[in-house]
Amino acid sequence: MLRRLAVLLRRLRGRFGRAAQDRELVEEMAWHQKRLARDLEAQGLPPDDARHAARRKFGNTTRLREEVFDMWQLGSFDLLVQDVRYGLRTLRRSPGFTLVAVLILALGIGSTTAIFSAVETLLLRPLPFLEPERLMRVSLTTQPRFGNPASDDMIWSWPKARTFQAAQGSYQGLALYTDDRMTINTGEAVRENGEAVSAGYLATLGVRPSLGGDFPRDVDAAPNPTPVALISDELWKRDYNADPGVLGKTIDVDRKIYTIIGVMPAGFRGLSGNANLWVPILNRQPWVFDAQFDHSFVMVARLKPGVTPAQAITEAKLLGSRVDQAHLDRDGGPGGRMGATAMLLDGTRVDPRVRRSVLVLLGAVTFVLLIACANIANLFLVRARARQREIGVRLAMGAARRRVIRQLMTESVLLAALGGTAGVLLAWWGVKVLSALNPSQALGAQRLGGLGAVNLTEIGLDLPALGFAAGVTIVTGLLFGILPALKATGLSLTASLKEGSPQTGSGAARRGGAFLVVTEVALAVVLLAGAGLMIRSLANRMQVDSGMDPDRVLTLRLALPPGQTARDSLPGFYDQLLQRLAGVPGVTSVALGNCPPLSGGCNGTMIEFRDRPPVASGTTPDVGVHWVTPGWFSTLAVPITKGRAFTAADRLGTPKVVLVSATAARRFWPNEDAVGHLVAVGQGGFGDTATVVGIVGDVRFGILDSVPGAEVYLPYYQSPRQSMIVFLKTTGDPTGVIGGVRAAIKEVSAGLPAYDVRSMQSRVADASAQARFSAILLGLFACMALILASLGIYGVISFVVAQRTREIGIRVALGAVRQDVLGLIVRQGLVLVTAGSAIGVLAALLATRVLGTLLYEVTPGDLGTYVSIVALIVVAALVASWIPARRATRIHPMEALRTE
Amino acid sequence: MDYPLASKPRSELLPGTLDMLILRTLSVGSMHGYGIAQHIQRLSKDVIQVEEGSLYPALQRMKLKGWLSAAWKKTPNNQRARFYTITAEGRRQLGERISAFDQALLAITRVMRPS
After folding, report:
1. Relative to the CA of A783, which of A282, A293, A514, A524 has its CA 20 to 30 Å away?
2. Which has the closest alpha carbon to A554: A864, A763, A362?
3. Beta strand extents in A129-231 (DSSP E only)
4. How far apart are the first and last CA of chain A?
5. Chain A residues touching residue B80 (CB < 8 angstroms)
């Protein structure tokens, strides 16, 4: 093998110095002859005789030169060059054909490459950390409980994580983190995405600051350690002009002064994927130090050398019960409600729904590519007929069939290469569009699972994507080239050389074409079915009643720096804020809430019933918990169906009251009136007793697909919080009041940044963004498939018309009328589309099962969808075959017979 | 699609013998084409006449295979000639050829002169 390579290399070198080599050989042989002649002369021959004898002895030097020349010839390479030149000439000779084929291929290869880039970025690319395959995510688990499925990715409380850390033996590093939004005050208050982390975070990920150092170990030792912070390269460049003297400077984060001890390498944005700032958890939330049930942190860990993931998982499961035992439930019962488990961090990189969507899209786009291949194979078949004579002549002249096939294949690969090049340009554009769609707008909108660090902003036409494009190009070239090449060269010589025998090989070519078209139609039907189902799901999702009216509502977030305002003075702040905001022109009502509807998930906790006997530990039901001010329900048009809403009288110090959602009322008090019952909610200081004073309509807080849950509303004024979302109902365009609203907030509290300022409508749109993303792309691919399949039908029917010109002429001469001819031809198209649809529908019934959880309120076998897509493709086929059929009706019998 | 590298028998010699003779000749020292032909002719007492029409293709072929290297040098009487030198790979080939040749010779002898 290596030896062959060496020979090839020497040949290659020889190939480019071939002329010089030949000259050398000539010189060498001339010298040899001269020496020979001289020696013969020395033996006594006359000079002329000696010269002639020498030349005779040498023989034909030209033939020798040729032999040596051939020896150094790069066999395959030189033939390839010939073939490529010939192929290019052929393609140039039919620019129309070439253009159409290149366009079709560009679409196919381009969209496949773009989607592959997404797959590569989201599913394949290694996580941007040291030896990412050694990183695990350790989680708490829960059993399936009232209304909620089992879960194996629960986050940790600080004390539980410490218990686990002390007991484990699988990891060399272990760390906690949580995304955290922070306000940096550098003259003006700026909201910044950050992460609150434990000391070992960076070491566990295997990342070192590019400037300065890591967190000291003792930031985990006790609450409120000396405040230190690390900043991202981006923040360093933006706010500090990349000044190396930044180390030791201080930064005001939420009114706490941190010393900057390091700058992270460029591109590192933490596991959340968007952090600019890292600070110790015990600075941000000192109270978590002994809050056993404050579950807020994700645990990542790096395996010790030699420990397998499976061993670590076994250990985590074992340690789960130890953690439970060490942290007994609130009601004093034994633990056991939670366990623990571990999984590869890479396994959590994207939400399963995202994984499924991109894989479905990759499948869909592959179908488009296959259809494109079939289409071009079809074009080639038709063209091969036109070239039958040329190929026949070449075969007759003694060209080997292999050689001709090779030449034809070179042509198709060449065409594929042109298409591939154009396709890469298209993919480049497509990838830009994909990256612009992301992250918060499309795939990440719905608080999907997965690591923020894995997102489409990192997508690009990188090496794997380009390699993929190149591979796809070659494969498609071979794929669409092989059938026509075999068909074109497999004919009998005499038949093809006989001019004007139109039936020659046409049967085979037509059968080949028909086969391709049936395949195309079947593939298109599968794609249309998938797209149809997704679009119906999207439509169903858009119809979902969220339980509130997002129209003309503006939302924005506010977060008071922790510890700045005493809890008891917060209601006063709310009063002031709401009063000012209500006075902004264009605002008709204003309220506070803590979590917007359709955001993907809000707070949740257990509910206990104080007027019933206690239930067994571990069976207490869960509820969603929401904080609102009295005006929240009217601002979002959520009806109060029973009892009363909150009033200004429900304040700190008055008896605690709650409202429950209709679902909660139905679930917990199925046969009685919920109003007046006593409950305890494990959050916001409502763990003692509160009275249910009213029932409100169901609002969907989770994703669109989920049914409304049991929700409990607490009054902000009885359970004050530092962070809030302001909801403002406006008279006109909600974004029109933003200026006034900001000014009003500044008047109330100068250093309080309003962020995430958006209309409620855009939040609702986010909720269906992921579904829309899949449905639109799938729809687009289905359209391409439909157009390509129609083109295929058109091509084959045109071919048939050309083939049957003579027959049609005779029919017309014998009295066939226009309708007869039209019917004759269109029927052929219908046969193809019927066969293709039948196969396609069967395949689709199987294939659309992969859509599974992506569908919403529509089954994979939805009859309506199938009827409409079959109707669609039949209409497309009718149009595609009607055009050539009409041409057939214009055939004049005399002309037709004269084509002989 | 490679062109055959095996030598085509053009002389009366057994196939491959010319290559072996050339390699053996060059194993003494580097030599130009004319010298190689002369050397073989002399040692074989004029029995083997190396045809130039076989010699040069054979030299090129072995150069291509990497058994020989070639360089232009001055002859003792100050003429420019292309000198061929055997490479390590060539020596290895020669070794193989010689043992194969010995075996063949032995076999032929056994057939021709049965004891």
Report:
1. A514
2. A763
3. 135-142, 151-154, 171-186, 188-197, 211-212, 228-231
4. 57
5. 27, 31
